[in-house]
Specification:
34% helix, alpha/beta, 4 helices, Nucleotidyltransferase, domain 5, 5-stranded mixed beta sheet
């Protein structure tokens, strides 16, 4: 399972009042973090220029392989759109991406949605 966290620097979670330019993507195996990468719109734009491809939906090309989005805030309309697409949306008050992923995994274990 992959989880995307809104981040502009790869470390902290983007404030809901600032436009998100990237995501920290954690790769989770059962309840363990097995990998982490930062994906930014800048990196995606460079890839588009190199390959000459046209990508209309940058959000899905950056996090389309993720099952959960973690944010510090999201309006109801965007949250409902993501949920209709099958994505879990987790809102947190944490500012650190690492703290937020640990909290999310703990919540999964407590709700029995993750393997023990």
């Amino acid at each position: 399972m992959k989880i995307a966290i809104e981040s502009n620097d790869g470390i902290t979670i983007t404030s809901p009042f600032i436009k998100t330019i990237g995501y920290v993507v954690y790769d989770i195996n059962e309840s363990d973090i097995v990998g982490c990468e930062y994906r930014s719109k800048k990196m995606l734009n460079e890839k588009i220029r190199e390959t000459g491809s046209i990508i209309q939906d940058k959000f899905h090309s950056m996090v389309g392989d993720c099952s959960t989005i973690i944010s510090r805030g999201m309006d109801r309309i965007n949250r409902e759109v993501l949920k209709k697409e099958g994505l879990d949306v987790f809102i947190t008050f944490k500012t650190s991406a690492k703290d937020a992923i640990r909290l999310y995994l703990r919540e999964l274990l407590l709700s029995n949605k993750a393997a023990h």
